[in-house]
Amino acid sequence: MMLKRILLFVLLIFQFISLRASIVVLNGLTHTYKVENGKVYKGKIAIENTDNHPQSVKLFLQDFAYQADGSINYTALHTNTRTNGDWITLNTNLVTLKAKEKTEIFYEITVPERPAQPGSYWSVIIVEPVEDIKPSNDKAGVNITSIIRYAIQVITDYEAENAKPDLKFESVKVEKEEGKQIVKIAIANIGNLYCKPTASIEIYNRKTGEKVGNYNSLTMGLLPNTSKSFYIDISKVPPDRYNAAIIATDEEENAFALNVELEVKND
After folding, report:
1. What is the per-residue pLDDT across 131-159, written as a single tens digit (0 to 9) for each?
2. Are 155 and 120 in contact (CB under 8 A)?
3. Which of 33, 81, 100, 183 is 20–30 Å from 223 (CA)?
4. 155-190 b/e (C-beta count within 10 Å ≥ 16 → b)
């Protein structure tokens, strides 16, 4: 009886939690620029209010980093030594959209006369709906509104010809997820230039050397001093021990390779 009362109480609370996703970004969450010292570049963020009610939105800048363990850090400007937050000026920090209205927020990037060094600089523009959390007067519990906010990366590559990514393999694991055998490859960019690598794995029979198969991950962006886990589905590979070559290749066809022994288990 006590358990039933607890479950009922939890249901009463959670039925008043709503997820508001009325604001959507229309022109992508990654904006990249090749820049020169002293120049000014213009960009825009296109947003839409899909709701039937007016919606206010605030915009502000933060530094941003992520790691292969899934952690994502949004921090105050200047936390990142390669921030370009001081280069970016928004034309507004607050906008109100009518029901079903679309609008554009403009920004300028003013590159310093002498950036510290070649490579990628970045920050994120946070687009966040403004919501009031109000008690519910006609229903039990508290009406909690969960806000979906967007982080738009603004990446500026300065003297990219004098910079380069440098990819390092941090770990390789085979794990079962949702009934699939997945190779998880943690890759860090220890260079100074943003890149978009794809990870691939070539699997070979240990006894005969015969190639068993070649499998690829999705392409993902990788900022300097960050890391991500690249997932590759190898469910078609029978359980056994194999030799494998893991290759990370970016859009400029820079390749980084690692030879490993791979074990695919039954469970």
Report:
1. 755 555 555 555 555 678 999 999 999 99
2. yes
3. 183
4. bbbbebeebebebebbebebeeeeeebbbbbbbbbe
Question: Is this structure's pTM higher than 0.70?
Answer: yes
pLDDT score of 83 more than 80: yes
Claim to verify: residue 154 and residue 43 sit in the same structural domain: yes
250 and 189 co-located in one domain: yes
pLDDT at 7 over 50: no
Residue range(s) defining the domain that contains residue 145: 20-161
Count of alpha carbons within 13 angstroms of residue 243, beta-carbon side? 9
Q: Side chain identity at 67, as an amino acid letter?
A: Q
> What pLDDT band is residue 244 in, cutting at 50, 70 and 90?
very high
CA distances from 165 to 67, 72, 192 (A): 16, 21, 6
- Percentage of the chain surpassing pLDDT 90? 80
Q: Extract the runs of DSSP E, i.e. beta strands, from the chain.
A: 17-20, 23-25, 30-35, 40-49, 55-66, 72-75, 88-90, 94-97, 102-110, 119-129, 144-147, 150-158, 167-177, 180-189, 198-205, 211-216, 226-233, 240-249, 255-264
Same domain, 171 and 156: no
Q: Residue 7 domain-assigned? A: no
Asked if residues 76 and 11 have their Cβ atoms less than 8 Å apart, the reply is no
